[in-house]
Amino acid sequence: MEMTYNLNIRATTQREGSFMSFADSIMKPATLGRIGVKNRIIRSATYMAGADEKTGNPTPKLIEKYKELAKGGVGLIITGHTYVNSNGKASPRQLSISSDDNISGLANLVSEAHGTGCPMIVQISHAGAFSITAEDGVTLAPSDVKNPMTGRPCKGMTISEIHSLITDFAKAAQRAKVSNADGVQLHLAHGFLLTQFLSPIFNKRKDAYGGEDILKRARIVFEILEEIRYRTGEDFPLWVKISVTEGANEGYSSLEGIRLAQELARVKVDAIEVSGGTFYGDKNLSPSRAGIIAGKNEGYFAEEASAIRERVGKTTQVILVGGLRSQERMVNLFDRGTAEAFSLSRPLIAEPDLVNRWASGDGEPAECISCNACSRTAKAGIVYCPVMRDAAEGIWAPPPEC
Ligand SMILES: Cc1cc2nc3c(=O)[nH]c(=O)nc-3n(C[C@H](O)[C@H](O)[C@H](O)COP(=O)(O)O)c2cc1C
Ligand code: SF4
Q1: Is 44 close to ligand 1, i.e. is its CB under 6 Å away?
Q2: Which terminus has fewer CB within 10 Å in the chain: N or C?
């Protein structure tokens, strides 16, 4: 029997006489993607700026921010995307994992999280066409295409560039392991270089790294996974985040994304975080959608996650991200078997201690109003929520974009 939505009561759902509460389901310890967690709520990878611009090492302020998050009660933290080589940086003051010199900074970050009993995994990525550090301003992409956002030409990668990129990803994973991180997450989502390989818009290659079939365009991903396993060993947890659909005209569909997920499970990735859309695609299908209301339109990739959950074996865990705001929705999705865990990004920018609040018995949904104003705060330092700050200062006024 399906749970009826009622945001005024504590999250419960009934199925065949069982009575599932938030405390008895989501907040119970579990093993996710081979990592022990105290609950099933994950901080999804979130770029927060706050790294040293030159070295990409975390500044003390950023380390404090991560510590605050870890103390806030989440079961596991995924770092913001880190760049695997110097021409793959997406944003200013982004964390780097491109050099051995980044190991001690990352180790500090991990150790702060571990100090509060919170595991941490590192998201690894390359920005490709959207890199801000490309040599001579020419960004790398799977093929010679124009960047759909700037119109600027990108340079299609040579085979030897692809091979060295595979090594860079694997070395980055090794560095995460040496930093004592609990695993790595390969970023295949939202439009960066690995999404670009999956994309028929960016990938027009006629060689072994392209083709009509998404699994052919995904060849680089499988080679990276293999190389990571080789260098880090079978025991090091290996997660991926996917955009189940590109959410763009002529981009790949959710059916293709679901097939990809099946194949990722077949090669035994430990967990698949299901997101969707890209920053160059349709705004209404974007990864961080605006206008989410608890109990109304939460968890916008739930259908696709469910389809993936049905198709992959239990050895690969499915994590849902995107617009989750209430305990009721998470309990309901967990009860239905849609996903084993739930990831949050913006709600934890607004309320880093949200999970503690929920654990204390407060059943109110996340305060985040999904306006995306936080995405524009990186310039000023570490990403923050202007809506909550204004509220705390008693001058609450939603930014004009809200
Ligand atoms: C400021 C900001 C930074 C983000 N940085 C990343 C990132 O580094 N890697 C990533 O995979 N997703 C990133 N995302 C997307 C989130 O992880 C998440 O998939 C999306 O916001 C939907 O979840 P939410 O509704 O809980 O925010 C970012 C989102 C925001 C708002
Ligand atoms: S600015 Fe605050 S309220 Fe708006 S989306 Fe970001 S975290 Fe949520």
Answers
A1: yes
A2: N
